[in-house]
């Protein structure tokens, strides 16, 4: 188990979605293996991972589109894929790029998908479609054929389809693909609105800034497994495994630490000390004993990007295990 | 959250939406238009040939259709049965699952959610309705162009009797229904293939391959024992419709054969839909 | 995975049901039924009842199955095909529809007139006048069924064994099977001829010709559907369709008859032997052998000799050189000088017959 185990245990029954030991093999290729994912109700969970890390496969299994080779999926308390008829009406999703009929206009496409929505009364469909189009800013292009849409417009229409009905859970797979900065901002607003309305949101993205800006929780996938998950703030905390020491005698400080086999290096802001094998008080003690003047000691917030890079680059099993322990410990 | 209950969109609404969508697809419209033209072009061709006095040489229905307008829709349908209508059925089936899968719209339907079994039923309904529409359209343009171009009130049957207009209309209707059923049988097989792939072209190629291979197998005397299980075996039975009295035996047998293929194609398609990745 | 198992079950069950259905459609109903139990009857009595029986009003479909080992143009091959539908009102009016692809030839006897319709060229030929004389003669002969039956059976018995070989079902009706087997002295290719006679109406429903060494009939013609009862009177009338020219058939027929007779004379037709090993010999004009005959389909025309070469094998003997065409039920020998011998016999019998000349 990686990440905040105890939180998961405490959240029984309150997860909007949960997977256990999820595994999918496509013709001998393992796409996803042993994924234990938990999306707490009301959270905005950002799913991070490089291309081919299994994000989309996991989402497709979550939505019952793909049958797992092994493991269990629970969506809104329903076992998937068998509970699809119960869970999916409450779920809106934009997966793997929007799928629409190229020969129909945006509005006609939404009308068609509206007709299939169990939660929409027949009389309400045109209204719901109009509202959704407005919400994603497609009003001007709603009458044009989908064939002629730009990538960003297609993405917006996909979002509109996911939001046709008020949902309990919204899944957005790479929602900002093809959007300009303004569009990206709009998506961010929409996600924030959904969050404010109590909707659980799962966003997969490779744009870390996106996730950092909009998410309350993060799950990091790499090579088909979850390498870290938990609250964003806790993870960032855990990931900041370095200490920044401000001192006029940087060289002396580095020497003193290296004598004690603590990795350290001088940087323009100060001495950066790696905390992987030691703790902050120990570092301060070493420095004080060596007579190095210490003006300021501060934990370095590395940011998601750093964490992500470290999580996904630590590909060897040993590194992963080490990271795992580290994150678990720090989270406590 | 475990209090969620199964909810489905009203099926008639989904079926209507499906039909509207299929009938908006440009390929469908072009196909329907071309099929509707077939009887007209045949009527013109026969009218010109008759005017030039080229009556000899024709065999079977072709010999009978001259000056016998009500036979034109039946003649046209029996000709289209050989390739054009199977092609239409296969194309519709190919677009229904393989094509939609490639567009990602099948995924959208599954996520709505439309249950997998229902989705197959909806898609099959779309294919079946448009097939029926295509055949009825051909019958209609056949009747109109037949009466206008070739003339004749009522219908001269192959047995040498003359049927009044309404009876002739009934014969055209029987032909249309029989032909539709046969195309459905092939389309069911095509739909099963369609459930296995994302490439519509594969579906069309496999389905027409089946028709062609069946035709070849039927032509080999040593393989006559295979005839009863070939999908094309009963396609010729259309010509029974123009006998008087109608010989129902081959038509009923053909209908049952088509039903068997519908069961086979339908069950394989359903089985694949249950496990297919969306 | 449950779903996977369901899926496999559905696919397997559906496919199995469909294929079983396809096979069932093809197999004739009641093929495996046990033979019906009928009161025993002697061969004479059976034949007598057949001769005595009036053909009732009936409707039926006739199937022809031919497996004689030689393609005959116009006849269906090994698979059975309904080739005709027969209707009669039991009072001399009747209708026969012969299928010709999607076209049809229809004969209608409406009591006074016989109509012949051919859809291929949309022609109607009309034959007026009563029954022909030969028919009357036969009718007179058959007026005493008991005697006729005895005569027929006696005639047959000279060369054959006649027996009632149990019962069966033909066209879903119980039938007696009358079997004619050649006596061992007969030099023939045939093993037996089997006639199925409807137990109720005593109408022969099926004729099967079985050749030596074959388990399946080489030739079979019989009803696949047969029902008695009043028929729609409209079936026995024929009104020539508008715009179709009607040819009076009688005169033309006489001419044709004369032609045929002169052909017969020139053919020097002779019957050699009797019984099962009867051989017909004759002469065809030598010119015919090099005549071009039109071939069906797209193949080029071929002359008769090359056709003979293709179908038969060359033999030499006291008669000179010729070609033998063998089928399961008969053999034909055509010599290069135009002599012909045909019979349901092996090749040697034909050669002997030619030698008797």
TrEMBL record, chain A:
It comes from the Bacteria. GO terms for molecular function: ATP binding. Belongs to the ABC transporter superfamily. Residues 17-248 form the ABC transporter domain. It comes from Actinokineospora diospyrosa. This is ABC-2 type transport system ATP-binding protein. Pfam families: ABC_tran. InterPro entries: AAA+_ATPase, ABC_transporter-like_ATP-bd, ABC_transporter-like_CS, P-loop_NTPase. PROSITE patterns: ABC_TRANSPORTER_1 (PS00211), ABC_TRANSPORTER_2 (PS50893). Keywords: ATP-binding, Nucleotide-binding, Transport. Signal peptide: none annotated. SMART domains: AAA. The lineage of its organism: Bacteria, Bacillati, Actinomycetota, Actinomycetes, Pseudonocardiales.
From TrEMBL, chain B:
It comes from the Bacteria. Keywords: Membrane, Transmembrane, Transmembrane helix. The keyword Membrane applies. The chain crosses the membrane at residues 29-51, 71-98, 119-152, 172-194, 201-223, 255-274. It holds the Pfam family ABC2_membrane_2. PANTHER family: INTEGRAL MEMBRANE PROTEIN-RELATED, MEMBRANE PROTEIN. This is ABC-2 type transport system permease protein. The lineage of its organism: Bacteria, Bacillati, Actinomycetota, Actinomycetes, Pseudonocardiales.
Automatic annotation (TrEMBL), chain C:
Keywords: Signal. SUPFAM superfamilies: Prokaryotic lipoproteins and lipoprotein localization factors. InterPro entries: LolA/LolB/LppX, Sporulation_related. Residues 1-31 form the signal peptide. PANTHER family: SPORULATION PROTEIN YDCC. This is Outer membrane lipoprotein-sorting protein. It comes from Actinokineospora diospyrosa.
């Amino acid at each position: 188990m990686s990440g905040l185990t105890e939180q998961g245990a405490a959240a029984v029954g309150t997860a909007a979605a949960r997977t256990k030991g999820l595994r999918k093999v496509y013709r001998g290729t393992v796409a996803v293996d042993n994924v234990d994912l938990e999306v707490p109700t009301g959270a905005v969970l950002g799913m991070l991972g490089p291309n081919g890390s299994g994000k989309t496969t996991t989402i497709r299994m979550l939505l019952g589109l793909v049958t797992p080779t092994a493991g269990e999926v629970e969506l809104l308390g329903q076992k998937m894929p068998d509970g699809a008829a119960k869970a999916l009406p409450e779920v809106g999703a934009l997966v793997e790029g929007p799928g629409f009929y190229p020969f129909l206009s945006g509005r006609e496409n939404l009308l068609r998908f509206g007709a299939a929505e169990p939660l929409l009364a027949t009389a309400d469909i045109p209204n719901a479609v109009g509202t959704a189009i407005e919400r994603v800013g497609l009003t001007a292009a709603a009458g044009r054929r989908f064939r002629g849409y730009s990538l960003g417009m297609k993405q917006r229409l996909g979002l509109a389809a996911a939001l046709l009905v008020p949902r309990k859970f919204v899944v957005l797979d790479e929602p900002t693909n093809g959007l300009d900065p303004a569009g990206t901002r709009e998506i961010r607003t929409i996600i924030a609105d959904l969050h404010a309305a109590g909707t659980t949101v799962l966003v997969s993205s490779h744009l870390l800034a996106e996730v950092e800006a909009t998410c309350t929780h993060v799950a990091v996938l790499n090579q088909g497994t979850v390498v870290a998950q938990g609250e964003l703030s806790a993870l960032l905390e855990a990931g900041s495994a370095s200490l920044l020491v401000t001192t006029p005698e940087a060289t002396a400080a580095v020497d003193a630490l290296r004598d004690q086999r603590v990795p350290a290096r001088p940087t323009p802001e100060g001495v950066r000390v790696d905390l992987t094998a030691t703790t902050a008080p120990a570092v301060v003690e070493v420095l004080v004993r060596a007579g190095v003047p210490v003006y300021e000691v501060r934990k370095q917030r590395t940011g998601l990007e750093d964490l992500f890079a470290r999580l996904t680059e630590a590909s060897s099993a040993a590194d992963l295990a080490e990271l795992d322990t580290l994150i678990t410990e720090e989270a406590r | 959250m475990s209090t969620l209950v199964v909810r489905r969109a009203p099926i008639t609404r989904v079926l209507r939406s499906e039909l509207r969508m299929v009938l908006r697809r440009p390929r469908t419209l072009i196909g329907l238009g071309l099929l509707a033209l077939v009887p007209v072009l045949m009527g013109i061709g026969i009218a010109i040939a008759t005017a030039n006095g080229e009556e000899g040489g024709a065999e079977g229905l072709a010999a009978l259709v001259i000056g016998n307008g009500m036979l034109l829709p039946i003649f046209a349908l029996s000709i289209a049965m050989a390739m054009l209508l199977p092609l239409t059925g296969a194309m519709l089936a190919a677009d229904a699952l393989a094509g939609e899968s490639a567009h990602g719209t099948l995924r959208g339907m599954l996520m709505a959610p439309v249950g997998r079994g229902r989705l197959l039923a909806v898609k099959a309904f779309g294919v079946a309705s448009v097939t029926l529409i295509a055949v009825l359209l051909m019958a209609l343009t056949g009747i109109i162009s037949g009466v206008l171009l070739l003339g004749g009130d009522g219908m001269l049957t192959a047995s040498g009797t003359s049927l009044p207009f309404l009876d002739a209309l009934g014969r055209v209707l029987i032909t249309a229904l029989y032909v539709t059923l046969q195309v459905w049988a092939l389309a069911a097989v095509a739909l099963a293939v369609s459930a296995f792939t994302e490439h519509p072209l594969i579906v069309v190629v496999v389905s027409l391959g089946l028709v062609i291979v069946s035709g070849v197998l039927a032509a080999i005397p040593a393989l006559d024992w295979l005839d009863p299980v070939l999908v094309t075996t009963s396609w010729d039975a259309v010509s029974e419709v123009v006998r008087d009295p109608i010989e129902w035996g081959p038509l009923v047998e053909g209908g049952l054969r088509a039903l068997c293929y519908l069961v086979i194609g339908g069950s394989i398609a359903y089985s694949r839909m249950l496990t297919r990745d969306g | 995975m449950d779903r996977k198992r369901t899926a496999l079950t559905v696919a397997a069950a559906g496919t199995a049901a469909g294929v079983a259905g396809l096979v069932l459609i093809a197999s004739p109903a009641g093929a495996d039924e046990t033979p019906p139990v009928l009161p025993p009857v002697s061969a004479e009595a059976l034949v007598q009842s057949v001769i005595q029986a009036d053909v009732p009003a009936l409707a039926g479909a006739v199937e022809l199955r031919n497996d004689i080992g030689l393609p005959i143009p116009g006849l269906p091959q090994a698979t059975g095909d309904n080739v005709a539908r027969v209707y009669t009102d039991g009072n001399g009016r009747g209708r026969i529809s012969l299928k010709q692809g999607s076209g049809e030839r229809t004969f209608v006897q409406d009591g006074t007139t016989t109509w012949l319709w051919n859809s291929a060229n949309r022609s109607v030929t009309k034959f007026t006048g009563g029954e022909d004389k030969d028919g009357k003669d036969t009718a007179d002969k058959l007026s005493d069924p008991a005697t006729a039956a005895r005569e027929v059976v006696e005639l047959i018995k000279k060369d054959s064994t006649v027996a009632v070989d149990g019962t069966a079902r033909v066209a879903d009706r119980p039938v007696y099977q009358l079997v004619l087997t050649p006596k061992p002295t007969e030099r023939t290719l045939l093993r037996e001829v089997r006639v199925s006679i409807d137990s109720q109406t005593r109408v022969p429903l099926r004729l099967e010709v079985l050749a030596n060494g074959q388990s399946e009939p080489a030739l079979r013609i019989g009803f696949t559907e047969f029902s008695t009862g009043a028929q729609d009177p409209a079936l026995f009338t024929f009104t020539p369709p508008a715009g179709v020219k009607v040819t009076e058939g009688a005169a033309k027929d006489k001419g044709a008859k004369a032609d045929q007779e002169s052909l017969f004379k020139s053919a020097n037709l002779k019957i050699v032997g009797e019984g099962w090993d009867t051989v017909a010999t004759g002469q065809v004009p030598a010119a015919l052998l090099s005549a071009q005959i039109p071939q069906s389909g797209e193949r080029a025309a071929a002359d008769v000799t090359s056709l003979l070469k293709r179908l038969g094998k060359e033999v030499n003997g006291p008669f000179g050189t010729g070609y033998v065409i063998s089928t399961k039920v008969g053999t034909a020998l055509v010599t290069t000088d135009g002599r012909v011998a045909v019979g349901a016999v092996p090749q040697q019998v034909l050669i002997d017959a030619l030698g008797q000349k």
